[in-house]
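User
Here is a favour to ask of a fellow structure person. I am asking you to supply a protein in sequence and structure-token form. Please set it down just below, with no commentary around it:

Assistant
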Amino acid sequence: MSNNKEFSSTSASRYSLALYELAEEANLLPQIEENSLAYLSLIDQSKEFNSFLKDPTLSQNILTDINNRISNNFKLENLFKNFLNFLILKRRYFYTEKILKNFIEICSEKRGELKAEIKSAKSLTQDEIKKITDELSNNFKSKIKLNYKQDESLIGGLIVQVGSTMIDTSIKSKLQQIENRMIEA
């Protein structure tokens, strides 16, 4: 089973890089990245579409037909539509989500962006998120691509992770540290 997982990760990386190179060569990188984000959003928001994507019983003709309809309805680039049809032909459509996420990461890396994640106990406004992103950009001397999540289990405070650097100011973490000290004493 682990061999299949390795194969799918390797395949996803290769297909993602191929999509990046095709998009760059055709001068369509921003459009293909936008199409990829829209497609990932559709996968994330629609349980039916997600199930369809992973249904091994559907024929290539049905998959291609539905992919073409989606591409036409959402006015996706022909290069993107053809790439998805190629995945269907090569029986790799099952890995579309993994391939597109990897593609987005490649685009981000090529722009020199660092990936950062922030979790907060309370909901942050767009202005607060922008201030945090700007501050991280200044501190790390690089563009930051921020992924924000609200996590009420933190009770209060923030957890910020940029690469391998983690800053945890959450009350949950501080209570855990106090508990650990009490147990050791």
In short: Residues 150 and 181 are 28 Å apart (CA to CA). Residues 2-25 form the longest helix (24 residues). The two ends are 45 Å apart (CA to CA).
